[in-house]
Amino acid sequence: LAKTTQPISMDSYEGQEVNITCSHNNIATNDYITWYQQFPSQGPRFIIQGYKTKVTNEVASLFIPADRKSSTLSLPRVSLSDTAVYYCLVGGGGATNKLIFGTGTLLAVQP
Amino acid sequence: NAGVMQNPRHLVRRRGQEARLRCSPMKGHSHVYWYRQLPEEGLKFMVYLQKENIIDESGMPKERFSAEFPKEGPSILRIQQVVRGDSAAYFCASSLGQANTEAFFGQGTRLTVV
């Protein structure tokens, strides 16, 4: 399974766009890239998933370059309630679909 | 459609007792994952199960821990002879099991060993 590397923490202010980048140099051909959000004392929540190029939903956008060795989660106009830990996961394309979480990025949004 | 249900939400056990954590997956999901999370840390994969089968248990401690997902009923994570170091939040997730489907997580069970 490909290992992921993310910044430990990021700071932002309300209304700003936040981009969190994840490195996954050893991503396999069949692997997908998935991002989860976790609030304190809660289980992680799926945000977005992609394989290549760009994916957008009502919550976020996911940018994946052609070599797929990294990905960027983009959160438009963050609010205080977006303060959480964001995890980048790579996998799902092999014989097993187990999800391996890295250390995640703690996003702190300030007023 | 109810989400992933875990119970109990909080469990207190004395050292040496057994802890049983239950996870009911979302309707139609046949794949279940268990994770452990210590305070201020990330989620550590423990085991991945399909109905009546253990697919991957590479994250399970070799002793005292076991997991099952029977044909009928919830998935059970069992910890025998608990020790203080077992105190953590245990999360369960379920999915359809296909590569590009999301996993849905429960609210977790917080185990405290006293």
Commentary on this structure:
The complex is a heterodimer of chains A (111) and B (114). With 111 residues, chain A is an all-beta fold. Helices cover 0% and strands 47% of the residues of chain A. Chain A has strands at residues 9-13, 18-23, 32-38, 45-50, 53-56, 61-64, 70-75, 84-91, 105-110. Chain A has a 5-stranded mixed β-sheet, with no helix packed on it. Chain A has a 4-stranded antiparallel β-sheet with strand order 2-7-6-5, with no helix packed on it. Chain A is globular and about 40 Å long. The model of chain A has no long low-confidence stretch (mean pLDDT 91). With 114 residues, chain B is mainly beta. In chain B, 0% of the residues lie in helices and 49% in strands. In chain B, strands 2, 4, 5, 6, 9, 10 and 11 form a 7-stranded mixed β-sheet that branches. Chain B is globular and about 40 Å long. Chain A binds chain B through residues 30, 32, 34, 38, 41-46, 49, 51, 85, 87, 92-93, 96-104, and chain B through 4, 31, 33, 35, 42-45, 48, 55-56, 89, 91, 93, 95, 97-100, 102-108.
> Major β-sheet of chain B, in short?
7 strands, mixed
Mean pLDDT of chain A: 91
Count of discrete alpha- or pi-helical segments spanning 4 or more residues of chain B: 0
> What percent of residues of chain B are in strands?
over 45%
Shape verdict of chain B: globular
Structural class by helix and strand composition of chain B: mainly beta
Number of strands of chain B: 11
Helix content of chain B: under 10%
Low-confidence stretches of chain B: none
What does the main sheet of chain A amount to?
Answer: 5 strands, mixed
Oligomer: heterodimer
Low-confidence stretches of chain A: none
Largest interface: A-B, 25 and 26 residues
Strand ordering within the main sheet of chain A: 1-9-8-3-4
Strand content of chain A: over 45%
C-alpha-based Rg of chain A, rounded: 13 Å
**Average predicted local confidence, pLDDT of chain B:** 93
